[in-house]
Amino acid sequence: MEQRQGLSDEARAEIYLLAGAVLDGSGSPDDLRRLEAILESDEQAQLEYVEFMLDTTNLRLLCAADKPTSIVDDFSPTSSPTPEMPKADPSGFFPALWDSLPSVLDGRTPRATFWILFVFVGSLLFGSFGWLVWSAMPDMHVADAPKPPKPVQPEEPEYAVAYLRDQEGAVWADGAEGIPSGGRGFFEGKTAELASGLVQINFKDGAEVVVEGPCKITFQGRNAARLEQGKLAATVEMSSAQGFIIDTPFGTVTDLGTEFGVEVGDETIDVGVYRGKVSMAVAGSGEVVHLNAGQTARADRQGNITSGSGQPDRLAIVRQIRPTNPAALDAGGETLGRAGPITVTNHSFEADVYAPGDASRANTGWTDVAGSAGTGNAKTAQYPGGIPDGVNYAWFNEPADTLGQDVGALVANTTYTLTVATGWRKDFAEGSRPNYPGYRIELWADGVLAAFDADTTNGGTGSGPAPGTWKDVTASFTTGAVVSGNLEIRLRAGKAVNDGTALQTNYDNVRLNATPVPESGSPEANESNEKQSGDTRNFGPAEGLSTDPAADKVRLTRFDKASSRGAGGNAAGLGEVRSLGVPVANRRAAPSKHH
Amino acid sequence: MAFIIALVPDWSTADDIAQETRVRLWEQFAEYDPERDFGAWARTIAYYQVLTWRRKQQGASLLFNEQLLESIAERANKQTVTTEARAKALRDCLKKLRAPNRQLIQAYYAGSETMKSLAERLGYTFDSFRNRIQRTRLALADCVRNRLREEDR
To answer: pLDDT: is A248 or A564 the higher one?
Structure first.
């Protein structure tokens, strides 16, 4: 502070006057030149000027933050009656002010959005100040907080629209085998030619296809491809992928939900629907054919259509592959849906392909339940010992950021165990954000939180990894004899994320395992469940949550979604739920992965 | 934001630049060198956005030549070391202001009204309004400085 004593009060007053005038727009050209001259001649003056600007920005933040009505107003500038807001000063900054100034404030500040932006950018540009103001703002502001925008479309770096998920004996037209050295990403407009073998390709919007060589496929976008020749089976579970299009020389097939196969021959196209429905616009005639589950149709070059209820299986299209080297590839494939691992799409966040150290808010295969978590390529400075799987991890920079993934229908009498590696970036931990940001992983059964694990700041009993390292965390629950609905994974940011002291929650290598348990009532049941948690009672969703500090996880034991729909509730729209009489091991936890 | 406003003292322009900066930050997050202070990195990005904006102005008379701009940016960068303490001090000092002055400051900085229209609405002459704001700002600055000195000890 001493170094500023050179500046006289008069000089300081002049800077304040001039800078204020410039900001207010009331300064004359002479004022501007005078300000410039003062700043050029004196470093102390520059410091004074910078402090003035800093305080002014903060004053605007503080004052705007103290005005809930106007901020709410501003989000709907044309709306008629504004909901009555409490007139009390929520932050306690200006005790009597709020009531004493109605005529001044008068509820109109067209720039309130701007102030909120200040808070956000302020937090980036000036460390934790934004947080200070934020914490002083009423809760409703937090709800209105601007979401960081996804990068504007034209400026978005080119990302693959689809990626190679797995292969089985794949030989490419150029002679390359297995996973091409060029990487797994397929870019828009690119054509891939498979000479023989099978590959599984996942599209950005969520469609999963298995293609069999010889085949030629051109990637037309994140939810569309053209198949010149060959066989393809597509599974479209995610709503984001509905409308998935396979264009062919003889017709265009549009998915209307779930699973279908296409075979393009020299003169014909065959389409079969395993589950759900598709439409096909036949090129030769312009006719549109709708096909339902269990139906097939053939169209030729002239547009002649033969449709029938022949089982789609007769098309002999491979719908699922057996990876040749499962350990080296993403988990999944053969073991899907049986006892064992359940496919988690993009489980290791490798689907979005990056240059070293690069990152984006892309999160292929996952859904932004809230906020916008991203994926990125890890740097050594972040994790000197490497990361658990592959080269990418997922990152969560805002407290609300939540990624979700629906992994298919629940199966009765099954223990689901979610295991996720969570990391703490060394560069943040030892740099400007020294505090641990926290973690929280969740399993949702039919829309109800069934199990979670979290560190102590996020409602759990777990602890995070050491800086620069990773740690597996686990959440688990067991379904009862009657279940309905789907299982969903959710990964969340720690609450401390971006509070100025902590920055980023990271996840990698998401694994989901299903283990059948004997039906309750059988002698094995009690024994098995005691191993699970030592408690064999049937719980409803709410009371079923019990913490198990020793195991560092929360479990829901015997999760029964008792409803009048019973097991039949699954059957609608999900073609493969079997009766309870079928041995558990044969049931499908993820019905999409059959065959 | 304060960093940008110091370089481009115009609220709406600074707003635009801040938005641009925000987009860049998201885009280039992975390029952030972890050895460096995150705020400093963000300010570097913001600085380049300011330069980009200036280039687009082509010929329009700009406040501050490039050398001065750089000098101010450097100053602002150093200043941020005490930003958090300064913000706290400002908040406390605001509370200590006499009610009428606090109200004026509040009205002026909370809204989007120009000083002129606010002065008219509240029944001040422009000059007297400006003087009051000016005096109050100086008082706040003194208060903040004293607070920070107290903490230094």
So the answer is: A248
pLDDT tens digits along A412-453: 888 899 999 999 999 888 887 888 999 999 999 888 888 999
| B101 and B77 in a common domain | no
Domain that holds residue B25: 2-81
Indicate if A385 and A284 belong to the same structural domain: no
Domain count, chain B: 2
SS3 B25: helix
CATH number at residue A271: 2.60.120.1440
Residue A420: enclosing H or E segment and its boundaries? Answer: strand A414-423
Same domain, A24 and A173: no
Ramachandran sector of residue A45 (left: φ over 0; alpha: ψ -120 to 50; beta: rest): alpha
Task: For chain A, say whether B38 makes contact (Cβ under 8 Å).
Answer: yes
Residue B90 lies in a domain: no
Chain B nearest C-alpha distance from A312 (Å)? 45
Q: 99-118 in A: which are within 8 Å (CB) of B?
A: 100-101, 104-105, 108-111, 114, 117-118
The Cα–Cα gap between B4 and B49 comes to 9
What percentage of chain A has pLDDT greater than the value 70? 64
| Contact: B26, A432; criterion CB under 8 Å | no
For residue A94, the chain B residues in CB contact (below 8 A) are: 94-95, 102, 106
The verdict on residue B37 lying in a domain is yes
**SS3 string of A247-280?**
EECCEEEEEEEEEEEEEECCCEEEEEEEEEEEEE
**Per-residue pLDDT at A144 exceeds 50:** no
pLDDT digit string, tens, across residues A487-502 = 999 999 998 888 888 8
Q: Answer for the pair A279, A249: CB distance below 8 angstroms, yes or no.
A: no
Range of the domain at A177: 157-315
Distance, CA of A237 to CA of A588 (rounded, Å)? 15
Domain boundary, last residue among B22, B57, B81: B81
CB contacts under 8 A, A 128-187 vs B, are: 128-129, 132-133, 136, 148-152, 155-157
Taking CB atoms and an 8 Å limit, are B23 and A67 in contact across chains?
Answer: no
Q: Chain B, 59-118: which have a CB under 8 Å from a chain A CB? A: 63-65, 68, 71-72, 75-76, 79-80, 83-84, 86-88, 90-91, 94-95, 99, 102-103, 105-107, 109-112, 114-116, 118
Q: Considering its fold, how many domains does chain A have in total?
A: 3
From A267, A285, A315, the end of a domain falls on: A315
Of A120, A143, A166, the one marking the end of a domain is A143
Residues A19 and A110 in one domain: yes
Q: Do B1 and A25 touch (CB under 8 A)?
A: no
**Is position A328 within any domain?**
no
Same domain, A463 and A388: yes
Which of B106, B137, B140 is best to mutate for the A interface (most A CBs within 10 A)?
Answer: B106
> Could you report the predicted ipTM of this complex, rounded to two decimals?
0.87
Furthest C-alpha separation in chain B: 54
DSSP code of A565?
Answer: T
Q: What is the pLDDT of residues B37-68, one digit of tens each?
A: 777 778 888 888 888 888 777 655 667 777 88
* Amino acid sitting at position A4: R
Residue B87 lies in a domain: no
Instruction: Give pTM, 2 decimals.
Output: 0.34
